[in-house]
What does this fold into?
Amino acid sequence: MSQRRILLAVTGGIAVYKSLELTRLFKKQGADIRIIMTKSAMAFVQPLSFQALSGHAVHFELLDTEAENAMGHIALTRWADVLIIAPATANTLAKCAHGLADDLLSTLYLAATCPIYIAPAMNHVMWHHPATQTNLKILQTHGVHFIAPESGEQACGEMGIGRMAEPNTIYQRVIADLTMLPILKNLNVIITAGATREPLDPVRYLTNRSSGKMGYALAAAAQKTGANVTLISGVTQLSTSGLHNFVQVETAEEMHAAVFEHIENCDIFIGAAAVADYRPIESPNEKIKKNADQLMLVLQKNPDILADVAALNLPLFTVGFAAETHNLEHYALEKLTRKKLNMIAANWVGREEGGFERDENALEVFWHNGQKTLAMTEKTELAHQLIELIAEQFYAKK
It folds into this structure.
């Protein structure tokens, strides 16, 4: 960590005290850390506290007369290896999401070219408000890495999700990204992600609730370990920024064709996409009119991409996913055996935490004569844990 340059942005909230500890953790490991504070943050903690811990003067003015050309915000973003906003208030999320640039922090966000991590902190009602959730989705399209808030008692005395993640959680997440070992270096990895769409007519289609977040996070994590990643994606709203090899598809048949076009030199295949099991036999060229009280659809089974890949006579490691509403272990193990996979990652859906369209998830991972639980956490962190486990089992099989 001695060469890492951390730019920590602190906004106004009671969780500012945790940012002092976060500063200490980075400094203890030899990182060069610089602090910027918003005016509201200084209402909770004086800049002198951060200056004492970081060893540098705190930045809080947009137009710094001490900086060359008074453009200190540009110099800071070019200097940093990573920008962390912790705590990030609802106001900060809104400003960044909509491109406002009326203070040092919001201007830094727009000028930054380094990875950006955001650790939100706010009242649980504010966290669940549609405006906040919309802003989070917008920021995800910018490629921001979120470190999810935790559930518990809040400063107002209420209970719920909104507490900023603990300093050690943030610290471990950032250094894991910055120092991931090249455990999959030069290996060819194919990952499928997102939902497929099966047209009913030119207007309507069959699909599912998959957001693609887990598959995209796996692609990013695998790239960080040195793998040559090809991401074959169904329909999502996620950013493809930073992905080296990206293939866009829509239907299950298109995804099947794309997979087999790239599969020949594949070492690891991860089927994280939510592929439609069935498609309409007929899809007329004109919109189906609402004439009858009932409409009968005849569906045909789609090709099973995962099973077809596993059946190939190739020395590759196959990983499947199983989203279950009940009997998770039973169905996961049955799928592992039936499709002749090397590993399967199963998760609950339809519950209060995790699953589709969420930033957090938990996994029960099974392989032959082995099992591991990956606890509920932010999907980008979960992806790192799963990639490490896949690498471990890949080399054990070899």
